[in-house]
Amino acid sequence: MRHVAHFGPGPGAYSDARTGNFFPETAPLGPALLPAPGRHPLDSFRTLLPYLRLHTRQYVIGLIAVVIATSVNLLPFYFIRLTIDGLTGQVDADPATAGITLGTAALYALGIVAAAVTAGFFMLVMRRQIVVASRQSEYEIRRDLFAHLQTLDKPYYDRARTGDLMNRLTGDLSAVREMLGFGAWQIVNIVSGFVTAFAVMFSLSWQLTLIVVAIVPVIVGVLTYLARLISKRHRLAQEQNSLISARAQENFSGARVVKGYAIEDREIEDYRAMNLELLRRNIALTKVDGPLRSFMSLLLGLAFGLILLVGGRLILEPGSTFTVGMFVQFVGTLERLTWPMLMIGWITGIIQRGLASWVRLREIFDAQPLVRDETGRTDLRLRQLRGDIEFQNVTLRYGSTTVLSGVNLSVPAGTFLGITGPTGSGKTVLGQLLTRAMDPTAGSVRIDGHDLRALPLATLRDAISVVPQEPFLFSDSIANNIGFGIEARDLPEVPTGVSVVGAPPPADIPQTPDPLKVREAARLAGLLGDVEDFPRGFDTMLGERGVTLSGGQRQRTAIARAIVREPRILILDDSLSAVDTETERRILDGLREVSQGRTVLLIAHRVSTLRHADQIVVLDGGRVAEQGSHEDLLAQNGHYAQLERLQRLASDLDADDEAVADPVSAADLLEQKVTR
Ligand SMILES: Nc1ncnc2c1ncn2[C@@H]1O[C@H](COP(=O)(O)OP(=O)(O)OP(=O)(O)O)[C@@H](O)[C@H]1O
Q: What are the TM regions of this chain, as residue ranges (predicted)?
């Protein structure tokens, strides 16, 4: 079940998008990844500290292990020096080099092995601490981000782009994790590598060390420049990669539209152009990526050549204490600096990307819902609702557009209220105000006499079920789709801002909703017959992995999902538009059964759907235009009466004329003509 995923990163979360390339492949990086103006990345680094603090111990142990490993890594050259100097019979100030026996050589060899084993062991310790800590931080940030996103409201999601949010939760999070893991240990590796290597080299020969000090900045400078160039071109290639994937995905999802409009050739041509651009960018990347290694070899070759010349002279100088063994140790130690030098440019990129990505994640954390519980206003004692609804002079504006204007409505608990009106008249937003998807601009919406702003959101949403105009079904079984709302109740709250280390294993959560409840809800929604016709019944998978339901079946699944929660208030937004009149009758019978003691708001365009409602409200231009029972409204001879006449006419036409195949469409057609 979906919520189980909250308790830990799935296998995919551990996958590392590393190419065999010299530079790691990260998320597509666009201009959007640049830090938000006016906010320095280091400021946001401070906001990352609480997550790092959860793993202080791991980072301290891990970083000490890196320092030990880099230092021990230089020991083999010391033993090689002793061996060479012993073998060549040269004697320096160190008595250990005054000749060598086979036994001593074996000891040195053992020393080399021991150093390698020790360094390997500490690198392992580092990985177990820092890399694991970065994965845990990734888990914790993702957990908290998701939990925070759950608190954000409709206005936020109206503005946010799903693709962008997905990209932040995956690509940006990976970039942050890479900075906390690989970035952190590489920084320490580079610093300790440079410090220890320079200390050793200086103790061997200050003259040679001076040459290195002169050369290294040039090498690092050139490499950093190349690394930046590669990073930039890599980013451009990645951006194009994203575009091309998005285009392909849209083409696959909209395959029916593409075929229907016979625009395959245009699609092929567009895709070809995008693909060609990707090729161009990839070639541009190869042009700088390829020569990097050769360039590195060339620079190092030159450096080593120079050191050989000067070092040779130092050895040959009369009375010199600089031995062949010391020279070999010097060169070996310098060679160990190759990797850190190469890494500087790379790590700078990783840190820059990580910080920029963290800024983008902070933007999500900083977003606050407009609608939320507020201390002082929310009365947390209100847990149960009866279902009396009241709109008091409610006005809703979006910018300069007035959507609802001075709506007054009183709906006693247990009322079956029909709502109709021309398209865009404000029917849906009326329901949305009731669930506090947003608050009214003026006036107040009340349940049981309490202004909604005084009700805890959990109480409110627990009491109301909505069947939206375009129901969303998950790629899951029919049973889980119907039981979606009940399974989520009574779950332990997942704590945020805490370490995952030492967290107890997830509680054993029942995997399937009560089958009897699900079956009963399906019956009431008129879906049972359809489900029983599927070979796997309620276990039938929907969506990408399973069957595709018809529009009417989708609507009824959503109705079943809403009523299985046994809400005090049920809102159905145009939920019977895709079913035939016979199915509609069955669903309405079911709804009447459920509506005993509940308040039902049924938004519909068809008089046949509305006629048995206790009360019917007709909205027009965001105002209540008519209100009363079916008979009252017919007597008023207004919009509703006109609607009824036209729909009756359409249905008579249908009875007379075989050519009108679908009475619903005919009625809708006529109704649209009238409402226009
Ligand atoms: N987030 C929004 N921003 C701006 N305008 C909005 C927003 N949501 C709704 N509206 C506008 O509010 C008006 C009422 O919308 P609503 O969805 O309630 O209409 P409706 O009566 O349910 O129509 P239909 O019968 O077509 O579903 C419409 O003009 C719509 O464009």
A: 59-80, 100-125, 182-202, 208-227, 295-316
Q: For residues 397 and 401, give the distance between their C-alpha atoms in angstroms, rounded to a whole number.
A: 5
Inter-CA distances, 16 with 20, 110, 131, 393, Å: 12, 36, 12, 56
199 touches 74 (CB < 8 A): no
For the domain spanning 389-496+510-627, the CATH number is 3.40.50.300
Q: Which residue lies with its CA nearest to atom 17 of ligand 1? A: 428
Question: CA–CA distance from 584 to each of 575, 593, 597, 644 (Å)?
Answer: 10, 14, 22, 17
Can you tell me the distance from the alpha carbon of 216 to that of 197, in angstroms, rounded to the nearest whole number? 13
Quick count: other Cβ atoms within 10 Å of Cβ 534?
16
Which contiguous run of DSSP H or E holds residue 15?
A: none
Residue count of the chain: 676
Beta strands 401-411 and 389-398 are antiparallel
d(CA 278, CA 2): 36
470 lines ligand 1 (CB under 6 A): no
Which one-letter amino acid corresponds to residue 103? G
Return the amino acid letter for 239.
E
Q: What is the ipTM of this complex?
A: 0.95
**Distance, CA 259 to ligand 1 centroid (Å)?**
31
- pLDDT surpasses 90 at 327: yes
Q: Whose CA is nearest to atom 10 of ligand 1?
A: 403
| Tens digits of residue pLDDT in 236-269 | 887 888 788 878 887 887 888 888 888 888 999 9
157 lines ligand 1 (CB under 6 A): no
- For the domain made up of 39-154+161-205+352-368, give the CATH fold: ABC transporter transmembrane region fold (1.20.1560)
Give the domain ranges of the chain.
39-154+161-205+352-368, 206-321, 389-496+510-627, 637-676
